[in-house]
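hey so i finally got around to running both of the ones u sent me last week. sorry it took forever, my laptop kept dying halfway thru and i had to restart like 3 times lol. anyway pasting them below in the order u listed, first the sequence line then the structure token line for each. didnt double check formatting much so if smth looks off just lmk and ill redo it

first one:
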Amino acid sequence: MSARLLLLALDSADAELLERWMEEGALPVLAGLRREGLWCRLATTAEVMHVSAWPSLYTGTHPGRHGLYHAFQWRAGEQRVHRTDPRWRAVEPFWATLDRAGRRVIVMDAFMDAPVPGFRGLQIIDYGSWTWFWGPASRPEGLFGEIRRRFGRYPAPEHLDQVTIPDPRWFRDRLVRAARHKGEVVRWLLAEHPWEMAFVMFGETHGGGHYLWHAGDPDYPLRPKRRYGPGFHPLRDVYRAVDEAIGRLLEAAGEETDVLVVSGDGMGPNYSGSHLLPPLLEELGLLRTETGGEGGGSRNLASRLRALVPLSVRQSLSRCLPRAVRQKLAMTWLNLGIDWSHTRVFCIPNSNEGYFRLNLEGREPLGAVAEAEAAGLVEELARELRGLVNPDTGRRCAHGVHVVDQIFPGPQRPHLPDLVLAFDPAARTLDRIAGPRAGAIAGPKPFEVPAHYTGNHRPLAFLLARGPRVRGEAPVGAHILDLAPTVLALFGLAPDGLDGRPLPCFRYPG
């Protein structure tokens, strides 16, 4: 058997938090790996579009080539937003390349994954993923059922089932139990099935980052009023449980296995003003809602009717509906109420960045912007976005305003936004923004944190590596795009056409 590789993906685990908690002794297993191997932060496509990180890492290509960037995406030629289908991924993940080359591969709970046609290894999808994009499945088909019979259901809620900020103790306990549960399932897989490369994702750090941030951040506005002890930090407890599970997996894998621990994105406080951006476009005269009689557009009318039902009631009703019904209702709501004949720019729904797309003639069926006007309109809007400030702090809202044509060209570019606003958490944007032309924009009262979670994505990715083939210093300037070519090169494969390059800190065959 050739040398083995265990790649552990910590979904939205934050490099800054890991560094702090490793130094404090809260994560002894990861700290040990760091002492014996190497650690570095990684540049990431999440600096522009956070959900693009994992598909970019899997494929070694940027979003303009693989085509995946968010939970909700636009498809050129269809004039509507969709729940993302992972089969839209236009470049195969590295595990498909390894499998086709005859390597024995295990893939467990990869984010935004779908069954690989003809896959001969083990592929488990959405057993313990934080967000389902496909649904529970496996290759071979009977494997998922066998895991359920042996270990039961994964004990933490999936994102669609978590529709409000939960009690921190309850949610922490579910995630801690889930991390241990995931570890036991993977230990069994590694012991019972031959493998050369295993990719395992722990999703607990993603859910914990979203819904437990406020409980450990005394400066966050929605910190619980209930008094907890001075050592209460539920998100750290979740990371510690993942650390313990990793320790058990290292025992199962053995000393001769190379181990990579990686994240393509991090998580910090939720200071996103994405919910204020459609009103901004309306104020600029770039977006118009449909007329629905006196009082404004149909979406505005629906919003008022929806607001009459208390949030707690809406959330309770949502939990009672079948998953497919909830998704259908969500997509109906997201596609409601735009007057396309008078709309020049619109937002693709997002709870982190601002995704702006021109209603472009020839690309959108109801396009209202001529090709000759497009570049000027993008620059005009970019100037407004760069000038946005939070009136409460005086800080500029944008950490970056990105013109997508300039950074992510490629065959999938027609499906991407045209302009992306990445919010600066230091601006602490919550419910108000002000623009040079648009003036003040305020959100509804009482304020509900967007997406009902208090932690949100930030681009703090990392790589931790230890093993017989790890050598030299931590690489400088490494990017998540380098991970796929590195994994393939460790198995003697060198496919052409990837955007990343094998990292120099490994000993490769030959």
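and the second one:
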Amino acid sequence: MPYNDTKGIALLSTTAITDLGTASETTLYTVPTGYKCILTEAWLETAGNVADALDVTIGQNGAETDFVGTTAGDNLDADEDVIILKPVPSASPATNKIYAAGTVIKFDVAVASANTVAGVVYLFGFLIAV
């Protein structure tokens, strides 16, 4: 389980998604005991063309949208295409969450791709000792 005691942004997890063509949830990370976590971004890499539809979200179990709300990934049309998933800043900064120890962070394929395509989610953030 990677962590960074220097409180710098680090790769928290690398998670294979077996099929973006099936609506499903996949656990990305569980905040370790003794820490709280602030997520900064996730990257979704695909192993092929997702075709004309793909909506994904990321957040704590039960919500699955409190970090990244519904995000279209239909522009992932070739092997090793990558999109960044993160709250979008605006004139009013996006609100982020601090996740307590034991919180399970999930990736949700809300609207499945028309094709059977595997992917990988790289989740980034930092841990704060409590």
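quick thing i noticed on the 2nd:
DSSP finds no helices and nine strands in the chain.
anyway thats it, ttyl
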